[in-house]
Design a protein that fits this description.
This protein is mostly beta strands. It is 0% helix and 41% strand. The strands form six sheets. Strands 8-7-10-15-12-13 form a six-stranded mixed sheet, with no helix packed on it. Strands 19, 20, 22, 24, 26 and 27 form a six-stranded mixed sheet that branches.
């Protein structure tokens, strides 16, 4: 039985654009609530920043045309920033902007993972409200079963996207060779995922290469772990089809990642707590409130972020800029860029970014429980 939802466009979970043409998208709001669009992975322009620069779409017919940068990558269009009073769940949509870097892949697949809570009446529940004891159901591309069929020695580029409402998830490709080449829409120094496992915070994206090295007829499980138990959600099935080549491809060449140098010596340093009283629910956000901090263009900013003990796990998302997670001694960083970071209760992490994009930008904080609200603060570069 179908359940009513609010979705972007047709039933497909993604849209593809060529990197040669800047994507232009016209949004129309047919819901009874205002809708604010958030674009995960796009660093600028500030004119697209929801609530601060880009007004929400008015209910029942509000429209807006958005010109997006033609930067290749895997992005997420998320209409759920203000959700909470809706009569049905709103669904995100993956935006793929294709570029020249194919890594020798024979094909390219989007895998959007989403979670659902279906009531006894068969209707999908809206996140941000108490769901009682209803268990979560997970889908890939809106299907309960979505196996990946590969030919021997084939290479498949997987665009893995966590479209879950609140949950941090881990995907484990059992006995598969998985090489990460991009994280949160930014090229990364390619590395093999340990034990075939990839962790995704809500809204996070990872591009990974799956090399089919198993014998024909093999069915390798894909397990999803949401912090409670591993759940089989799919398989990698090696078919009896003719292989595209006699042997597996060699490891991919490392792409050209963004500049890795960060001037930590002269950084502006700010302490930030994910305490509930300091962050406004998105539906009550007031852009007239003062920013958490103001910085100048191209200055390095280091945020020391603490999730207070005694609470729940949470996620933090920085709009407008990607950041690196700093090592403990402040003398290095992880070899990839992020826009979203997960925190355990009582955990402190430090991130650094170059404030290259002038404008007003949101920061999001959200607990990982189904009924947790999205909370906001903001910062300014200029």
């Amino acid at each position: 039985m179908a359940t009513p939802v609010w979705q972007l466009g047709d039933g497909l979970p993604y849209t593809r654009f060529s990197g040669n043409t800047p994507p232009q998208i016209v949004f129309t709001n047919d819901t009874a609530q205002p809708v604010a669009m958030a674009f995960h992975g796009l660093d600028g322009p500030a004119s697209l920043e929801p609530l601060l620069e880009h007004a929400p779409l008015a209910p029942r017919g509000g429209t807006a045309t958005c010109e997006l940068p033609s930067k290749p990558g895997t992005f997420l269009i998320d209409p759920r920033l203000l959700s909470g009073d809706d009569d049905r769940p709103a669904l995100p949509r993956v935006l793929v902007v294709e570029g020249d870097e194919a890594f020798g892949a024979d094909r390219d697949e989007v895998l959007l993972i989403e979670d659902w809570k279906i009531g006894t009446d068969g209707v999908a529940q809206v996140a941000g409200r108490d769901s009682g004891s209803v268990a979560s159901l997970y889908t890939i591309n809106r299907r309960v079963i979505h196996d990946i069929t590969v030919r021997p020695n084939e290479r498949v580029r997987l665009r893995l996207v966590n479209g879950c409402q609140r949950s941090v998830i881990a995907l484990k490709f059992v006995d598969c060779v998985i090489t990460v080449v991009s994280v949160d829409s930014q090229p990364a120094e390619s590395f093999v995922a340990r034990d075939g496992q990839i962790v995704l915070a809500p809204g996070s994206r990872v591009d990974a290469l799956l090399d089919a090295t198993q014998p024909v007829g093999t069915r390798n499980e894909i397990l999803l772990h949401d912090g409670t138990k591993p759940i089989p959600i799919s398989h990698v099935v090696t078919s009896f089809s003719s292989p595209p080549r006699a042997a597996p491809l060699p490891p991919p060449a490392t792409p050209s990642p963004p500049p890795s140098q960060i001037d930590l010596k002269n950084a502006q340093r700010i302490d930030l707590a994910l305490e509930r009283g300091q962050w406004l629910p998105a539906i009550a956000f007031d852009p007239a409130l003062p920013p958490v901090f103001h910085t100048t263009v191209n200055r390095t900013v280091v945020l020391t972020i603490t999730n207070p003990p005694g609470g729940s796990a949470a996620t933090f998302r920085l709009h407008g800029h990607h950041f690196r997670v700093l090592d403990r001694l402040d003398d290095g960083w992880k070899p990839y860029w992020l826009d979203t970071l997960a925190f355990n209760p009582g955990q402190t992490q430090r991130i650094a970014f170059n404030a290259a994009h002038p404008g007003k930008w949101l920061m999001q904080c959200m607990g990982t429980k189904w009924n947790s609200p999205r909370r906001l603060r903001w910062y300014e570069v200029g």
